[in-house]
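On clarity, I found the account of how folds are encoded harder to follow than it need be. An entry of this sort, consisting of the sequence and the corresponding backbone structure tokens, reads as follows:
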Amino acid sequence: MKKIIVIGGGIAGLTAGIYGLLDGYEVTLYEKNAFLGGECTGWERQGYHIDNCLHWLTGCNPKDDLYQIWREIGAICDDTELYFEPYFYCFDMNGKRLHFWCDLEKARQEFLALSPEDEKVS
């Protein structure tokens, strides 16, 4: 039987392993942590739940190419509730706010508004 070794049990490694199994390979997956899932996991710590889950999973919009892959491997199913923000991340520093917008042009414009000297580099 053909064999595959996958290093890393995050969403990419798990996906590679699933597709290997579907194609008839024997798959061995190695992960450095005690649990699988990588950045798509949540955990409990000192009474708090730290959620680092699917809200960071790119391609979870049905219009995205990756969406079908996530459906095939079971990362997204019919009862998965998805919430979409117009940005990936936002933070405030020294009275200024910076968004990491999903829309790259909008992100570029905001970055340049905060740092116009970068225009000559972009």
